[in-house]
Amino acid sequence: MIEKIKSKIVGSIKSKKINIFLLFFGVSFGVLILTKLSRSYTNTITFHINKINVPEEYVLFDDNDALKVSLKAQGFNMLRYYIKKPVIDIDFSENIANNDSSYVWNSSTGYSNIIAQFDKDVEVVNINPDTLKFKYGINAIKKVPIVVNAKINFSLGYDLVESFKLKPDSIKIIGPESLLSEIESIHTDTISIQNISKDIKVKTNLNLPKKSNALIFSANQTIVSALVGKFTEGNLKIPVRVTNIPDSLTIKYFPKFVNVSYYTSLKDYNNIKKEDFIVECDFKDQTERQPYLEPRITKSPKTVKNIRLGQRQIDYIITE
Known about the structure:
Elements: H1 2-38, E1 40-52, E2 58-60, E3 66-74, H2 75-83, E4 87-91, E5 97-98, E6 102-106, H3 107-115, E7 123-128, E8 131-138, E9 140-147, E10 150-154, E11 158-160, E12 165-167, E13 170-175, H4 177-180, E14 186-187, E15 191-196, E16 200-205, E17 216-217, E18 221-226, E19 228-243, E20 251-254, E21 257-265, H5 266-269, E22 278-282, E23 296-299, E24 304-309, E25 315-318
Parallel strand pairs: 1-4, 9-14, 10-15, 19-22
Antiparallel strand pairs: 1-3, 2-8, 3-7, 5-6, 6-8, 9-13, 11-19, 12-18, 13-17, 16-18, 19-21, 20-25, 21-24, 22-23
């Protein structure tokens, strides 16, 4: 029993000694690190170039993506460039020359822009190379419409009151003319909604070309919205007109009226009149194989859809 107690006491003492040792080791190591970081160093660091304010009509061809900058600073200030990828901006709207085929950046003229990107405690000792050339070509700019790609299903009696509205409804594409000539429109990703009975408003991605590294798009998303309302069917008797009858002929045709059915929203139902429709037959379309006239709707209000004629042919006789 006495031996067990002695063993526990000795173990506790040893454990405390180890903990004290680790504590002193940690403190000593921390002091060493702080001492190192508080010293001044001169190091050369490779910065990735971020090209800003490049005119949108130009495309840069060269891969001048790095600038080596020698810095003098305390270790604390230097540490950040090793933790995070260092980036430096080159502004193409100032302190850069432009000739017929390339931009030329020179450290002597762009020096002030470079040092402005560092803290006052960091000294820029050297910049290498002292000159960068960025060859460019002229881009074309094309504006194309956005087309909605939708698979939607409405609840019974509901439909779109008006067509889809997009914001933006078109995008600007910048790139080589050879690529832009192949693009006439940009479609949205498929919008799939079931049992719709209320207004639609959804943000969707644009289905941009797969090989688009050489192209710049003004947007990659659009907001699609539309009014949805309760719909009902309407029917009207509309008089039939016959056009282009030769002056030498007189005809009689029947029926003189045809039934027109349509689909419209409840709020527009009472505003639709028979005068809003025109049904015409063109006598020029008559042939021996088709000894009758074919009625067509040549005018209808914008607030109706799914228009159907109750009569597919108009019979006639010639009375000279």
